[in-house]
Amino acid sequence: MAWLVLVVSGLLETVWAIALDRSAGFSRPVPTAVFGFAIVLSMLGLGYSLRTIPVGTGYAVWVGIGAVGTAIVGMLALGESTSLARILCLLLVVAGVVGLKYAH
């Protein structure tokens, strides 16, 4: 259960990161509210997961999921560059996250 919660929390990190960008410095109320809601849920889930998953592994997986998810949303929906090098680097992050899961 802790791993499922950790994955969902990592996905929520993507939500709050995109909402933070869209909030324009917290000047737009809806993205600001989404940011606040998502970051609180994300942190609660991370905290719950760290009850049974070691902090180094849990935090690295959480950050990796959030970073890769945010980069993918940026490339697919926000017009950020989609170079081969960038995609390969993201695949390396995914490989690291999967490796941490199985090394646990």
From TrEMBL:
GO terms for cellular component: plasma membrane. This is Quaternary ammonium compound-resistance protein SugE. The lineage of its organism: Bacteria, Bacillati, Actinomycetota, Actinomycetes, Micromonosporales. Keywords: Cell membrane, Membrane, Transmembrane, Transmembrane helix, Transport. PANTHER family: GUANIDINIUM EXPORTER, SMR FAMILY PROTON-DEPENDENT DRUG EFFLUX TRANSPORTER SUGE. The chain crosses the membrane at residues 33-50, 59-78, 84-103. InterPro entries: EmrE-like (IPR037185), Small_drug/metabolite_transptr (IPR000390), Small_multidrug_res (IPR045324). Its main location: membrane. GO terms for molecular function: transmembrane transporter activity. The gene is sugE. It is a multi-pass membrane protein. Belongs to the drug/metabolite transporter (DMT) superfamily. Small multidrug resistance (SMR) (TC 2.A.7.1) family. It comes from Actinoplanes siamensis.
